[in-house]
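Teaching assistant here, posting this on the class forum so everyone can see the example we discussed in section. The complex has two components, and the goal was to see what a joint structure prediction looks like when all of them are supplied at once.
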Amino acid sequence: MRTSTGARVGQYAALLAYLVFLAFPFLWLISTAFKPPQELASLHPTWIPENPTLDNFRQAFDEQPLLRAAFNSLLAALGAAVIAVVIATPMAYVMARHRGRLGRAATGWVVVSQAFPFVLLIIPLFLVLKHLRLINSVAGLVMVYVVWSLPFALWMLAGYVRAVPAELEEAAAVDGAGRLRVLVSVTAPLLAPGIVATALFAFITAWNEFFFALVLLKTPEKQTLPVILTHFIGAEGVADLGPLAAAAFLATLPSLVVFALIQRRITGGMLAGAVKS
Amino acid sequence: MPTRTRITTLLVSLSLLLAGCSGGGDGADDGRITLRFQSLAWQEESVTANKELVREWNATHPDVRVEYVQGSWDSVHDQLLTSFEGGEAPDIIHDASDDLADFAYGGYLADLTDLLPGRLKSDIPRRSWETVTFGDGVYGVPFLQEPRVLIANADLLDKSGVRVPTPGRPWSWAEFRQVTKRLSGDGTYGVAWPLKEPVSATLNLSLSTGGKLFHRGADGKVTVRFEEGDRVVPRTIHDQVNTDHSASSTTLGSGGSDTLPGFFAGKYAMVPLGFSYRQQIEQQAPEGFDWRVLPAPAGAEGLTQGVSPQTLSIAEDSPHKKEAAAFVDFLLQPDNMVRLALGDWMLPTGTEALKDPALHTAEHGWATGTALAGHLRPAPAQSVRGYPEWKDKVATPALQEYYSGAIGMAELRKRLVEDGNLVLARYQR
């Protein structure tokens, strides 16, 4: 089916508008991070700082342990992503391939678990972690993040498993491959993009999470980036805008880089899967 | 390497990595006491002052080490509540008096009555202690406070020829209204009221006109009454916005910081702000911009206004309350209180600290603010149970609608009193 030139132009215009809409906050954040205080309080703000400065970055690093916090965030996010995927992959496979009462119950649990508000869970979780002596540790935080992201990860991965035709596994079995060989050589490569997408979801969820980190981590050496960012905000919501923007910009970079590196794998993998089916 | 071996290696590595980042408890078991002090200082100078004081304490008290923990105003209530419930609260807690009631009544904070030294008790005025007294106990030490002041564009003020008010001879509310009319015109408003939080601003300023709003009966129950003293401030703001057009209507929903660009651009001649906003103004004002600090208008009760001071409390669960109280006493020695006040651009509550010459200079309006210290009283809502709900569900929408001109004074009164008393009654059965 051929698309008319007008429709194509409309599509690109809509896409461009959407990109501008998405990019605006981030570009404004970058602009703010390089502005001196006088420009931040200007009635006619400009996109490009008139007197660009690195003072906001200097102040942000002087005042708060940003590198340490970034390391903690990375540790928590990577840990949560890897463990969530390791646990969710076989579970999702079972849910997708053996669709009985148990599978339906599991799916129901996934939906229901998403409805629980953070505030309802935080005190019981806190007490459990305290009993396990995991308060104020990144390990405890990773546990929470895994539990928190597991239902959605399961749901996501089960969809990817269902998209892999069972006939391929049957064909491999007919050719003499054992169960494990089928899973490793046939199913896993086709699932790769789904696993990557799920890991990315778990990573970004953990990277951005604030409330659990705020409550579970007590000492400055353990705190993650979202918690450290709030230290630039004072009473009545007054913010130290320049250093806050500088720190927020730096906090955004890792997840952008991870996404940029991985997104080609996701689309590539999806296309590969499409061809095979 | 076979796949199974690779997976096993990966899992073992991950376990080791996580084991490596597990917490190791609250410090060494060498007989030394470690206290955790959670500070909400956030401005560069203030954080520096707090950390320096902690360092000085640690240098002179080898047996009682204080660990500085950075908290955040933005999330302190939820974070403290969870910490209290889990028995993991910091020993020394920085907060504001209007946030303490639930914690005090909930038994989470230590009663400081017998823990504080006489020096500190007598140094801070009774009116400040009232802000942290709940029932029969004292649950915090009020140490920093800020009056609401008028920050004025000095050039516009001088050009208009109006009488410049001083703490000794402030404007009355009627005179203030006349002045803002004179300062308006040529694209300039006489005043920009940042009323994102209209309730605390209105209630606290209304103390100057004798407005109490909350009245406690002989049975201890609180009711809302909206009398003449309560009407002066809201009426003035309403008339400036809707009748005189000497106040900008667009800033009614703004926070204090949001008004600064317009203020620097000469769009507003005056902005009523908390005293600590001077730090932002000093930092952000364009070169050559001349600003001045003026006292808020006065009424039948003079310059009186309500405040909720910043406080230091001790957790009830702390096993080292005496040592924590000693640290609080050290932190609030007059010289140290001055350092904290200068760092936060606020006023100390201590009478000795208030005598410090650094707080009496004309520069940045310090002297004007210090002259107001004796007029500061506990915010009217401090001890009213149910106030947060009354504020969010009744007073905030009612005042916002009144200031924008959508409803009149009669409707405002009806909502604050009738709807308000229904809310408060539920908390006093």
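For the discussion questions: The two ends of chain A are 22 Å apart (CA to CA). Residues 2-40 of chain A form one domain. Think about how each of these relates to the inputs above.
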